[in-house]
Amino acid sequence: MIDLKLGRMSPAESERLRAFDGEHVWHPYAPMPATSPAELVVEASGVRLTLADGTELIDGMSSWWAAIHGYRNPVLDAAVTAQLGKMAHVMFGGLTHPAAIGLAERLVALTPEPLTKVFFADSGSVAVEVAIKMALQYWRAQGRPERHRLLTLRGGYHGDTFGDMAVCDPVNGMHQLFSDVLARHVFAPSPPLGYLAEPDEAYLKELSALADAHAHELAGIIVEPVVQGAGGMRFYAPEYLRALRDLADEHGVPLILDEIATGFGRTGELWGCDHAELAPDIMCVGKALTGGYMTMAATLCTERVATTLTSGEGGALMHGPTFMANPLAASVASASIDLLLSRDWRAEVDAIEAILTARLEGAADLPGVADARVLGAIGVIEAEEPVDTRAVQELVMDHGVWLRPFGKLVYAMPPYVCTEDETGHIADALYAVAESLGA
Ligand SMILES: *Cc1c(COP(=O)(O)O)cnc(C)c1O
């Protein structure tokens, strides 16, 4: 039985649940049955997760970029509860509601000016599917169906559905497993590493030549701005994003920015594209949109994209998830945005950046460490070899921290509400991992 007061559970019950989980419940990117057991979380509050045995861990992952305000935030809890008192859900076909309209008002106001049309999706992956569909329909509406390929960067990650996988990094995204069924897009090499790196002229020429070579069939350009997240946790100079904006203009194709990981302040600016002071034609947001409470994402586009595709065959964007614009998710998203803007989020992210930078100093020089880097509230240790996930997790849990490494990458993106002390714990755990790599 769960002891609600303590959030604890008898060891026998905890064992039973974990055993069932390992045998029957699929986890992300995991085999079935599981080869290593998942930790059992019974509660979360503030920036801490409580495990079944009462262990508390500071969540250095913000539940995959999402829980920027931490857990059980009273304002967000109240937003969900208030909406629950009105309705949990209603279909969005032919019906609308104040929760969706309120969120759309906020997104239009908060995103770069040309983005004025909002499509609500039920996950980040679907938001990217919708963005791709918008770009393709944009050309079909103009009688140019041969424009069906997207230019993108190696090292990218855009979600796990088939349309999205086709624009993910071909190696990380395991294209070889699905090579016969994935759409064939155009891949430029990853931009040179480093937010502050001087622009590499040879690389810029290569980008431009690639766009030229495929100009006749190009439907759009899709990238993550400034930070390539799950595809490699790579930071690149805003100059390259500007070059992509210019190429999109030159070829008259929409620039799609996937801000699902970078949005809502994570990189130190509200949007990744703010680093380059430019606006996309289509933009995807998700992850932190609801403060980590519910699954919801959105695809925004310009008036031009919307009216062009609407003028074509069908006269509509052909997409409509059952749980589109879910009122509970939309309400908590609006509350999360208001909460973010009510605080000095920039100072919070800057403080996390300063602590991560200071405590990871020297980590890059340790044996077994290929690189250590920080941008905004993102800290990354890149190992020379793939890490032992289980061993790394045990080490950081000994430091009272939760992190989830993948491949050669051990990284943190703390909730913005972490205190100095809590961020320090996360940074120390990262440094401890770096020290352990050469051992
Ligand atoms: C996580 C992520 C997605 C996919 O979002 P889901 O909600 O997991 O479907 C797409 N693009 C980027 C950049 C992401 O980080």
TrEMBL record:
Gene Ontology terms for molecular function: adenosylmethionine-8-amino-7-oxononanoate transaminase activity
Enzyme's top EC category: transferase
Binding site for substrate: 64, 157, 287, 320, 404
Pfam families according to UniProt: Aminotran_3
Residues with the N6-(pyridoxal phosphate)lysine modification: 287
Keyword flag Chaperone: no
Catalysed conversion reaction: (8S)-8-amino-7-oxononanoate + S-adenosyl-L-methionine = S-adenosyl-4-methylsulfanyl-2-oxobutanoate + (7R,8S)-7,8-diammoniononanoate
Swiss-Prot/TrEMBL keywords: Aminotransferase, Biotin biosynthesis, Cytoplasm, Pyridoxal phosphate, S-adenosyl-L-methionine, Transferase
Protein EC: 2.6.1.62
Pathway recorded for this protein: Cofactor biosynthesis; biotin biosynthesis; 7,8-diaminononanoate from 8-amino-7-oxononanoate (SAM route): step 1/1
Sites marked Participates in the substrate recognition with KAPA and in a stacking interaction with the adenine ring of SAM: 29
Domain of life: Bacteria
Binding site for pyridoxal 5'-phosphate: 124-125, 258, 321-322
Localisation per UniProt entry: Cytoplasm
Entry cofactors: pyridoxal 5'-phosphate
Function of the molecule: Catalyzes the transfer of the alpha-amino group from S-adenosyl-L-methionine (SAM) to 7-keto-8-aminopelargonic acid (KAPA) to form 7,8-diaminopelargonic acid (DAPA). It is the only aminotransferase known to utilize SAM as an amino donor.
Family stated for the protein in its record: Belongs to the class-III pyridoxal-phosphate-dependent aminotransferase family. BioA subfamily.
Oligomeric form and interacting partners: Homodimer.
Protein name stated in the entry: Adenosylmethionine-8-amino-7-oxononanoate aminotransferase
Organism, scientific name: Actinomadura yumaensis
Annotated gene: bioA
